[in-house]
Specification:
The protein is mainly α. Helices cover about 80% and strands about 0% of the residues. Among the domains are: about 70 residues, Orthogonal Bundle (434 Repressor (Amino-terminal Domain)); about 100 residues, Serine Threonine Protein Phosphatase 5, Tetratricopeptide repeat (Alpha Horseshoe), CATH 1.25.40.10. It starts with a helix and ends in a 5-residue tail after the last helix.
Length: about 425
């Protein structure tokens, strides 16, 4: 069958984020799948049948891959494989560029399915590179495309990523709308769509929590928790516990938050996905600090996040978010000059952050300045935070900023003691 079969097999495997071992299952080793993908082994009828079940494709589809690929097909297959290789090495900008090339070539060759998959990969890669606005633009066109409109599965996937990109921009109200639509589509989904539904549900929970709608988020957490079974893959289960724990911390249920994050820490493997491990440690440190949990485990989470992000290569946005963790730790440990210096640097680069995270920076800056008795400067920072939180739709944090401003005004207008 030649390399055409192997190229298509690898393409389908990567689109499903399966390892070679996972594709082979109990019947075929990862090394044998590698030989198939490289064209050094020819698949038998039995192998085609087994792989078609793993990929949830018909055996006829896999058999058709035996056809000799045209030069045009080879062009977009090569570009798509390059895109996935960049994705695997966290070169997200390279992944986006190669995916765009593959999508253009697929469109020219009238391959709508390949065009959709590559456009989706382009948008997702831009999201991971923190190019949120560009990702939203591509996803808007993707959602409006007839291929998406005619498929609940494709609409679910596109709207989930759209919600994540809007969340990254701090457009919380719109993010909730997109995530809600995705969850509604995925409710009662088939086994094939269930993983996409769970991701959409986690995105909705995150956007609701960021917007201050914590009890709504918690109700969805209960649904997510009910979906956990012994058959849930460890990495997936870890991410689910991670999200549930986040919301528990927001609800001030510290014991529940610590319990779920402890389970997540045991299930998530840095060896399997170091980038997600870095993000988990960033998230658990953030909610611990927000809940006032200042202990050795919290510091350890910050240090793990800093180290893991330095290894995997953090984006500018991720670097600033990790620095904000360190600044909050310094503030809570009364190391005010160090916290102020770090926050000043972060605030000067806040265009790299979503509105809600920029608001968190301004709010923390105000708290540090107030603790240093620089109340005039603190008032300016709190007013800045209020504006940013209003823009993001984070109502609870708007109230927090206002309360600090009122407190400072009361101090300024208090009668002097005689």
């Amino acid at each position: 069958m030649g390399s055409g079969f192997g190229e298509r097999l690898k393409q389908e495997r990567l689109e499903r984020t399966l390892t070679q071992g996972e594709l082979g299952g109990a019947l075929y080793s990862a090394s044998y799948i590698s030989l198939l993908e490289s064209g050094h082994r020819e698949p038998t009828v039995e192998i085609i049948k087994a792989l078609s079940q793993q990929l949830q494709l018909s055996p006829d589809t896999l058999q058709s891959w035996a056809q000799t690929a045209s030069p045009e097909e080879c062009g977009y297959l090569t570009a798509s494989l390059n895109a996935w290789q960049c994705w695997d090495t966290r070169d997200f900008l390279g992944a986006a560029q190669n995916a765009e090339t593959a999508a253009i070539k697929a469109s020219s060759n009238m391959n709508a399915a390949m065009w959709w998959n590559m456009t989706y990969l382009q948008a997702t890669s831009l999201l991971r590179n923190s190019d949120f606005a560009e990702s939203v633009g591509i996803l808007t066109r993707l959602i409006e495309h007839p291929l998406t409109a005619g498929s609940g599965s494709l609409t679910l996937r596109a709207r989930q990523v759209m919600a994540a990109a809007l969340l990254g921009m701090g457009r919380l109200h719109e993010a909730i709308g997109q995530a809600t639509l995705a969850v509604e589509i995925g409710a009662g989904a088939s086994a094939e769509q269930n993983s996409a539904y769970l991701v959409a549900l986690q995105t909705l929970i995150g956007t609701l929590a960021e917007s201050g709608r914590v009890e709504e988020a918690w109700q969805h957490c209960l649904t997510l928790n009910d979906a956990l079974t012994e058959a849930t893959p460890a990495q997936t289960a870890g991410e689910m516990h991670w999200v549930i724990g986040n919301v528990a911390f927001f609800r001030k249920d510290i014991a529940e938050g610590l319990n779920h994050h402890s389970l997540a820490s045991k299930l998530l493997s840095p060896a399997q996905d170091l980038a997600r491990w870095a993000q988990f440690n960033k998230a658990t440190a953030w909610v611990r600090l927000a809940a006032g949990v200042v202990e050795q485990d919290t510091l350890q989470a910050i240090e793990r996040s800093e180290l893991a992000h330095s290894v995997v290569g953090a984006s500018a946005t991720e670097t600033l978010e990790v620095s904000l963790l360190r600044a909050r730790w310094l503030f809570l440990n009364s190391e005010l000059p160090k916290a102020l210096a770090l926050l000043t640097t972060i605030n000067s680069q806040r265009e790299q952050l979503g509105s809600h995270t920029a608001g968190d920076t301004a709010l923390l800056l105000g708290q540090v300045l107030k603790a240093l008795d620089r109340t005039d400067d603190a008032f300016v920072a709190f007013a800045d935070a209020q504006t940013l939180f209003t823009e993001a739709g984070a109502g609870d944090r708007v109230s927090t900023a206002k309360e600090n401003m009122v407190e400072i005004e009361a101090i300024h207008h208090a009668p002097e003691a005689t």
